[in-house]
Amino acid sequence: MARYQALTTGIGIGPPRRHLLWCGPVALLVGLAIPAISTVAQEVGPNPSTVSGESVRRINGYRGIWFTLGQFYGQGEDGGYIPMRRQPTFPYGDKYSGGLATYTAKHVPLAVHCPEVDKTFFVYGGAPEDEQRYLLCMVSYFDHRTGQVPRPVVVHDKGGVDDPHDNPSLLIDDQGYLWIFVSGRGRTRPGYEYRSRSPYSIDGFEQIREEELTYPQPWWIDGLETPFVHLFTKYTGVRELYIERSIDGRNWTEDQKLAGIRRDGDRAGGHYQTSAVWRQRIGTFFNRHPGGNVDKRTDLYYLQSDDGGVTWTDVEGNPVETPVVDVDHSCRVRDYESDGRNVYLKNMVFDDQGRPACLIVTSGGHEPGPPNAPRRLKLVRWTDTAWVENQITQVDHNYDMGSLIIHDDQWIVMVPSDAGPQANHGGGEIVRWTSRDAGATWQRQNAVTENSIRNHNYVRHPVDAADPFFVFWADGNPTELSPSRLYFADSTGRRVHMLPDQMDADKAPVQVIDFDASVPTKNAAP
Fold first, then answer.
1. Which of 131, 333, 437, 500 yields a CA-CA distance of 20 to 30 A from 285?
2. Nearest to residue 378, comparing CAs of 419, 417, 327?
3. Residue 140 CB coordination number (10 Å)
4. What is the pLDDT of residue 54?
5. What are the two backbone dihedrals, phi and then psi, of residue 341, each rounded to the nearest 5 degrees?
């Protein structure tokens, strides 16, 4: 079964560990992105981390993790920025924060629809209770036949971590087994791999391995000798891209470095990436961190492979020797550094001809707020002869994350492009944009959410998605610790469902949301 061939053509714990800290200048860059564990998190008692067939830990509802990076910015006397502070500072606020259950954009994929059982399986970063900063790596499913969800299962308890950088990603193989890759964080916390004990089931998992991995992007590519292909990041200087391959998901090749670009004289570099699969082709877009400084992320590169990552080419099929180390490389799509623009990757797709396209946001810098505007949401796509860049709209935050989707004859973007109740902070109100000319021009179609009390963000599209679970995301207040709810919507964006935050039974129906009233209105029809 070619599980991932239709990715973007539309609908269709180990024991608790002490967290070690690095020393030195590189540690400073990484450490800023790893806040201390909250007091609330430390008050939670120990919990089993490996889910077995005999001991399955379930949570009585769907509650997302809330997080703050703790890098705050205010307005200086000249209208620019005051220096970054660790205490809450406004009007611009945090670099990013809020409900981050479906974070990050570098965790791919988070959901897969399986027509064999007509269920959409999904993973997310959860919390034991509202406003409790304690990360649980969760898995569940939506049953399209009944319109119900079960109580979600804890695959991995992070033992006091409150950071959604440790969220999981999901792969489902041709036999229906769920493989969950729990992200680590740099070289301070390890990552984990789990496999379900039964096909198409969340009723038990076994831990396969523990290793250094961050931002997991696992794929099953049907027809390859090594169908398990995993793209991920290692903090080797500072964030470099790697790939590993496997026949059975248990035994993996040596880590192969894909990219570690540095300018002459740089002691560090770095990248973020997003990937997708079309037939037997895997592609990845990635940006570049000059000098290893994530706050200066810029430029856009693209690589693809038709043999599961054994060999790589640029978009025109020219062989590329990996790792890519040169700034001015044939696989560079666009030089944004010369324009003074930061580049934030959202997601990528392939069209029905196997041509790649990537959704990005460009801005004047990493700090939130109006001084770095305009923040342009753009589509970068290959046309067989050239890379073309088209603007879709503007957003008010670098971390406003949505998804690009190709569905039938439409290109669709669902993204929080309207200002939400917490304007100029991460997320907002989700809007559905469409294109009928392969991404050249875009039209606003309809609001997906409106009159919300919390910002919505990180809209994700499942592999082989089927209505009504076409996209899913979470909400949260970026300005203060708040509850976080999880939602999904159909391909029209007009029917939004909220997953139940409290469950008294083993299974429960999802509810359709009336955003005018800001409350659930009725149970969704099966």
1. 437
2. 417
3. 23
4. 52
5. -115, 135
Location of structure tokens 């061939």? 5
Q: Which pair of tokens denotes residue 85? A: 């502070």
CA-closest candidate to residue 310, choices 258, 236, 354: 258
Nearest-angstrom CA–CA distance, 414 and 403 = 6
459, 399 Cβ separation under 8 angstroms: no
pLDDT band at 520 (very low <50, low <70, confident <90, very high): low
Q: What is the pLDDT of residue 44?
A: 35
Beta partners for 134? Answer: none
Mean pLDDT, the chain, whole residue set: 90
Cite the beta strand spans of 173-279 per DSSP E. Answer: 178-182, 191-196, 205-211, 214-220, 228-234, 238-246, 256-259, 269-270, 273-278
Confidence band, pLDDT 50/70/90 cuts, at residue 186: confident
pLDDT at 39: 29
Cα 314 to Cα 7, 272, 327, 330, 372, distances in angstroms: 21, 18, 14, 7, 32
Number of other residues whose CB lies within 10 A of the CB of residue 176: 17
Each residue of 59-96: b (16+ CB within 10 Å) or e?
bbbbbbbbbbbbbbbbbeeeeebeebeeeebeebbbbb
